[in-house]
Batch of 2 targets.
Target 1
Amino acid sequence: MDRNLNELIRVIPDFPKPGIVFKDITPLIADGDAFIECCNQIAKFAQDCDYVAGIEARGFIFASAVCAIAGKGFIPIRKSGKLPGQTISKSYDLEYGQATLEIHSGLIDAGKRVLVVDDVLATGGTAVAAAQLLKQAGLVPTAVVFLLEIAQLGGRSQIARALPGLQTHTILAE
Ligand code: AMP
């Protein structure tokens, strides 16, 4: 594709709080060619995994499409109180507030390899919590892939510090 897909990311200042520069992916996912191009690129990282985990909510959009492209099962990493079975939870700090993520325990066989997908890498706290939850559930995170990264927030180095050896990839250059 010869277009710059970054032009389909809308930048909205002061959302959801003053001082946050929000990267809105909705123009990109509304463009069918751009959406499939991004999902195809993410799917290249799914070759050596058994499952793809998406982080609620925008990670679900990309991760489930990647599952369909790569022929992998989907694991939802959800906000607290949404999963009906037995769960493992982790609370962490966000660029704008605090959050808790959960994963079902005992559903997927221990040792299975899981690619983690989300839309935006900001401080990295969400991705670290997601990968740690997978590990606590006995699974093996293979890499984390984002559509885009806000590099000045240092998320890539936070992931490297918390989970040495876990590769971080982004699809769109800044
Ligand atoms: P973080 O844990 O700081 O890396 O935040 C990542 C999560 O929060 C992702 O699930 C993003 O969807 C969302 N997020 C954080 N900051 C932004 C931002 N500036 N624009 C869009 N999404 C963001």
Note: The chain has five helices and nine strands.
Target 2
Amino acid sequence: MAQIAKGLEGVIVSETSLSHPDGENGRLMYSGYEIADLANHAIFEEVVYLLWVGHLPTRGELTEFNAQMASYRILPKAVAAVIQTMPNDVEPMDMLRTAASAFGAVQKITGKGTVEHAMALTAVFPTIMAAFDRQRRGLAPVAPRSDLSHAANYLYMLSGEAPSEQRTRALDTYLILTADHGFNASTFTARVIASTLSDMCSSIVGAIGALKGPLHGGAPALVLDMLREIGTPDNAEAWLNAALDRGDRLMGFGHRVYKTEDPRAKVLRSLAERTSEIDFFRLAIRVEDVALRLLHERKPDRRLYTNVEFYSSAVLHGVGLPDDLFTPTFAVSRVAGWTAHVLEQLKDNRLIRPAAEYVGPTNLTFVPIEKR
Ligand code: ACO
């Protein structure tokens, strides 16, 4: 029997110049730049430009890029109408998947993917999510402002008020940290679809579906649920032991690639300290300490550490986002990476089509339906 790489762990299916998660050393680079440097010094738009174009923009290039992004932020009327027809209790990720699909059809995102397609899709995600969130709160949508950054526009379109510098910077940092991450499940989904020469919007709609699962982008709201259930630092040990006794996975821990601390968790921890309420941060720190100790004791050969989702929940909560917008906000960021990967796939495309080992029955005799 051929060797099976279940979950494709360790299988190298392509080359990429976009991002390099180094699981052994706990490092992450985007096109050669250390993630902490980008998170501390760049804005999201610069990072998006880097992923799509291959170098950091000059001031002139960034100004032109910002103006183009601004023109794509406005929601087409037909997409606004699709959002309006959706019930208010629709899951936000289902809403995003539906609206993104409608957007691709209305904007005629067809044929070979281009940077313009990438820009249109990336620019409109915050507008979609903000319009939906306001609608379910009984509020009219707020149009984007061309003088605000991507992160500031998202917060502005959600609340109707220009956000503080601190909230904008916190969201901007989160968006930078989560924009790309090698061949994760949703990115790989996007590349598989691109490899059939389907359109870029189909890649992105498929990727949204992959991101939604709790083993991928669906974890941060579950982290918050866990922290709320634990309630106080003193309850952490008993709660986490009981969860592990039941065989539950602790949300926000473990990673397919990182066998040490996720470098994004490091940046997010210090951001969470500045953005979340002090009692909440103390609780998160205690839960992390106890969880790491228990995972180490119970699964000593597994090398389980804090992943990006653990402190994302504290940061996004601190920024003021409702829990069910955490995963869509991950998509607001990751769509930049998905689209960059589609562009990269198309530069040197070959249909992605792996094989499976057949283990079903063989040589059965066909029995006519009336005799079964
Ligand atoms: N809590 C408890 N045990 C865990 C955890 C966890 N968070 N993560 C892995 N393990 C254990 C598994 O039970 C398994 O142990 P066993 O062999 O004794 O049964 C072992 O570690 C290996 O687990 P796998 O599922 O094979 O590891 P994989 O690399 O496939 O999983 C994953 C990675 C899905 C992230 C996993 O660690 C997990 O489920 N974490 C919790 C969910 C989470 O935080 N998701 C967000 C990930 S980050 C992102 O996608 C952006």
Note: The mean pLDDT is 96.
